Amino acid sequence: MEPNKRPVRLVSAISALLVGLLFTMFIGSASASAAPAKNSYSPNSLGLEVQSAILIDADTGQVLYQVKQDDVRPPASMTKMMTEYIVLEEIKEKRLKWEDIVTVTKEAASTPADGSQIYLAEGDKHTVKELYIAMAVGSANDATVALANHIGGGTEQGFVQKMNETAKKLGLNTAHFTSATGLLDTTVISAAELAKFARILLQQHPEFLEYSKLQSYKFRERDKNAMVNWNWMLGSNKNVTSFKKFAYEGLDGMKTGYIGAAGYCFTGTAKRGDMRLISVVMGAGSKESRFYETAKLLDYGFNNFEKKTVVAPKSVVKDAETVKIKKGVSKSVPVVTANDMTFLVKKGVEPQISEPKVTLLEEDKLVAPIKQGQVVGSATYSYKDADTGETIEKKVDLIASEEVEKGSWWRLMFRAIGSFFVGLFKGIVDLF
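== serine-type D-Ala-D-Ala carboxypeptidase ==
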């Protein structure tokens, strides 16, 4: 009987081996589909392992580096920056106050538990400020929806309509919002326009950073633990054991994000000296890598660029040294630039700046009296980046460098008579 059993055992062993191989191949295939393969990222000189990215100067909007920046992708919780912007706008316009009480709706309390939240119950009452900080620090989806309900007439979709109207007004042409939180993958925007929006947010509401830089926040006194900021790159985390390897000098904002369709995302901003940069990475492979890739971008910016002043404040512009005015003690007024003209350029490179394009106010607006410092026109300078080919334009006001009083009736009358005879004499000369 023993000889007859050997073939059966051999076949069973081979079958088991084949099943094991097939299972290993299946698991390997599934793992590969769970995260982008390393070689699926677009080749780039910084070795960024992201689906898209951009780095800009916060002051001018000048693009310093980009990878597939115009691809339209889900931003995940970076969507909340628009919600934060609208809240700040409502406060600015005095339609909302930080101390206003928000009553949590059923919709907000029913926010899916598969994301960040502070476990609000229907009927809970909290101030706008409490909910805003929960959104900014802990990326709390239920707090976000509660604020959206409060501003949007009771529903999240009412607020979403406001989000899209705001995006259109700000010129964010790739942006389409379907939720206030970013939990839906139907919300989309490009990295380029997300950076553009982040710049608008910082320029119009610098107070945003007061909240985005908070390391933690205890929402309720009874809460056992405080919520911890998802932005592990905060410069203030340099002494926090868990995050010090991510902490980046000068970084004080802005927003992380993750859903399956988006991958790991991060919009960051850091300031060193007089330079503030804004970066966006979308579609990174892990929580940690989105910060490592951001550091590559910011390092490139801070290590390779510097601000260069090409026009000093109170400078005289060629061919616009003076401006003619009407009805003044003088017929013209000296003109200078209101402030300096600075561009961000590669270190060690002398920027080639074009001759300025001068635009003066209409004649009927250049009438005495003219005050010192009064704007009388503008000068536009342009600089072409040799690496990107992008032309950056900056405009500076031209102002009167001294005061010109209105001329007396007698002065203006005799000036008119003099002009009449000068014109008459010239007309006679032209006859011969």
